Amino acid sequence: MTFLPSPASAPSTRKNTRTSALRRRQSCHNRFRTSSIFAWPLGAAGLLLLALNTLFWSALLFPFALLKLALPARAVRQRLDIVLNGIARAWITCNDGWIRMTQQQPWDVQGASALRYDDWYLVNCNHQSWVDIFVLQRVLNGRIPLLKFFLKQQLIYVPVIGLAWWALDFPFMKRHGKTALRRNPALRQQDRETTRRACEKFSLVPTSVMVFAEGTRFTEAKHRTQASPYRHLLKPKAGALAFAIDAMGEKFGSLIDVTIVYPDGAPSFWQLACGRSGRVAVRVREHRIPATFCQGDYGGDAAFRREFHRWLAGQWEEKDLLIETVLTDAARLE
């Protein structure tokens, strides 16, 4: 797989950037400790609100999901999908309420106002924390159709929410290691078939298909192990994006590239619940998907695969520079 590296920065600049980031993280962690007397009750209340909100809307969701299972006709499914997605949006709206009330600092969001709700989107984002999902849902809820994530197969067994994901047609993917794929290349076809079946369901009503191209959460250890050419990102994996474009064809109006930056360090969910997520910056950009990508064979055409990698690597270079700019601007405000 070919990746184009980001422009190299001077060693002193990179060192200063990392030192500044480390200081910001340390300052953020100190703030968590000094405020712990208030953070724990607030965090417990946040978890309770999330649990009650999930139970309430799931109780409304499951009967419609069972009805869709019993009546699989296309016309019925189309109407029920609208209802199910509406319930999911209500769940997100309620989560947005307690997140907005508990966070100490306003979020810096740019680029989301021009999006349209009545279209299909492919959404790509960098990945640092479970908090990313709540950030994406809060920023994009009501602006684009409901986000549908590709999930690990094991997550279907998570109590309540696993069944909710199943009811909403979230695709569950089996993760195959490189060794297993080398031994049995047919496993790649399983993921492609799972993507195709999921996208067939998404074609009934406007949907946003969400992909974390890095495939895992960013950590400094993973960054070093990969020898990633990017300063703030892991190497992107093109397969999921390519399969989704192949399956949906020209249904996607465009690709929405979301960049999430945590100037004070990536928070955990507990820190979010405690109102101590720190500063959150989100940049949303819309890209046209080349028409040729809708007809290409990513798995069987090496030339097409190289072209797709170059396209994604170009976006990753821009994203890496954007993160650097946001961090630099945030450092000036400290």
Relative strand content:
5-15%
How many DSSP helices? 11
Order of helices and strands: HHHEEHEEHEHHEHHEHEH
Total E-strand runs: 8
Q: What general form does the structure show?
A: globular
Helix/strand class: alpha/beta
CATH-derived architecture: 3-Layer(aba) Sandwich
Task: Count structural domains.
Answer: 1
Averaging pLDDT over every residue, what do you get?
84
CATH class type: Alpha Beta
What Rg do the Cα atoms give?
A: 20 Å
Largest sheet: 6 strands, mixed
Low-pLDDT segments: 1-34
End-to-end Cα distance:
40 Å
CATH fold-type name: Glycerol-3-phosphate (1)-acyltransferase
The main sheet orders its strands as: 1-8-7-2-6-3
Helicity level, as a percent range?
A: 40-55%
How does this structure look, described?
The protein has helices at residues 11-34, 36-70, 74-102, 131-140, 161-167, 178-183, 186-202, 220-226, 239-248, 269-273, 302-332, and strands at residues 108-110, 120-125, 147-149, 151-152, 172-173, 208-211, 252-261, 281-287. It is of the alpha/beta class and 334 residues long. It has a single domain (11-332), classed as 3-Layer(aba) Sandwich (Glycerol-3-phosphate (1)-acyltransferase). It has a 6-stranded mixed sheet, with helices on both faces. Strands 4-5 form a two-stranded parallel ribbon. It starts with 10 loop residues before the first helix and ends with a helix. The model is unreliable at 1-34 (pLDDT under 50).
Quick description:
This protein is an alpha/beta fold and 334 residues long. It has helices at residues 11-34, 36-70, 74-102, 131-140, 161-167, 178-183, 186-202, 220-226, 239-248, 269-273, 302-332; strands at residues 108-110, 120-125, 147-149, 151-152, 172-173, 208-211, 252-261, 281-287. The protein has a six-stranded mixed β-sheet, with helices on both faces. The protein has a two-stranded parallel sheet with strand order 4-5.
